[in-house]
C-alpha cells in the first residue's frame, strides 16, 4: 500500500513534508525492483540538491541505481542507520528506511508531484 501522506516522483522517490522539513525516500516499488540492498550512498549534509538531479546511489545484489531529488533544497540530515543497516530500505521504505531530509525547499515543487493514487496508476501503466 502506498501511503497517502506524501507525494511521489515518476522516478520512484517520495517526499513527506513535516513542518519545515521534507523527508525523502524511495518507494516500496523501487526497493522491490532493486532487490536486497547492500549499500546506500547518501548526499552530504549542507549540500544543495536540485529537483530531478541525481543525489545518491543505492547498490543491491542486482545493480547500482542512482536516486534523484524529488524536490530542490538543502540537505539537513541523512539517515545514518543506513550505513550499518542498508536493508532498512527494503524492510521499511516509508519509515525507518528514509534517505535524507531537506530544509529550505519549495513546497510548490512537492505539490507538483503525484499523489498516491496517481503514482499507483502510473505503475499499472508501466511508466
User: In this structure, how is the largest beta sheet organized?
Assistant: 6 strands, antiparallel
**Count, helices:** 5
Radius of gyration: 13 Å
The strand order across the widest sheet is 1-2-3-9-8-5
Q: What integer is the average pLDDT?
A: 96
Strand percent estimate: 25-35%
Q: Percent helix among the residues? A: 10-25%
Oligomeric nature of the chains:
single chain
Helix and strand element order: EEEHEEEEEHHEHH
Shape: globular
Q: How many beta-strand segments? A: 9
C-alpha termini separation: 18 Å
Low-confidence stretches: none
Could you walk me through the main structural features you see in this protein, from its secondary elements to its overall organization?
With 127 residues, this protein is of the alpha+beta class. Helix content is 23%, strand content 34%. The chain contains 5 helices and 9 strands, in the order βββαβββββααβαα. It has helices at 28-34, 81-84, 88-91, 107-111, 116-124, and strands spanning 7-8, 13-18, 21-26, 37-41, 48-49, 54-60, 64-68, 73-78, 100-103. A hairpin with a 4-residue loop joins β1 (7-8) and β2 (13-18). It is globular, with a radius of gyration of 13 Å. The two termini are 18 Å apart. The model has no long low-confidence stretch (mean pLDDT 96).
Tags for this entry?
127 residues, globular, alpha+beta, six-stranded antiparallel β-sheet, 9 strands, 5 helices
Structure summarized in a few sentences:
With 127 residues, the protein is of the alpha+beta class. It is built from five helices and nine strands. It has helices at residues 28-34, 81-84, 88-91, 107-111, 116-124, and strands at 7-8, 13-18, 21-26, 37-41, 48-49, 54-60, 64-68, 73-78, 100-103.
Amino acid at each position: 500500500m502506498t501511503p497517502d501522506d506524501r507525494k511521489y516522483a515518476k522516478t520512484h522517490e517520495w517526499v513527506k513534508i513535516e513542518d519545515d522539513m521534507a523527508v525523502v525516500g524511495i518507494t516500496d516499488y523501487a526497493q522491490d525492483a532493486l532487490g536486497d540492498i547492500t549499500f546506500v550512498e547518501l548526499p552530504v549534509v549542507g549540500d544543495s540538491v536540485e529537483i530531478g538531479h541525481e543525489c545518491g546511489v543505492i547498490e543491491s545484489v542486482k545493480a547500482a541505481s542512482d536516486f534523484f531529488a524529488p524536490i530542490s533544497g538543502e540537505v539537513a540530515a541523512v539517515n545514518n542507520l543506513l550505513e550499518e543497516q542498508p536493508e532498512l530500505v527494503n524492510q521499511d521504505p516509508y519509515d525507518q528506511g528514509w534517505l535524507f531530509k531537506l530544509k529550505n525547499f519549495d513546497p510548490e515543487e512537492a505539490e507538483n508531484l503525484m499523489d498516491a493514487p496517481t503514482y499507483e496508476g502510473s505503475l499499472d501503466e508501466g511508466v
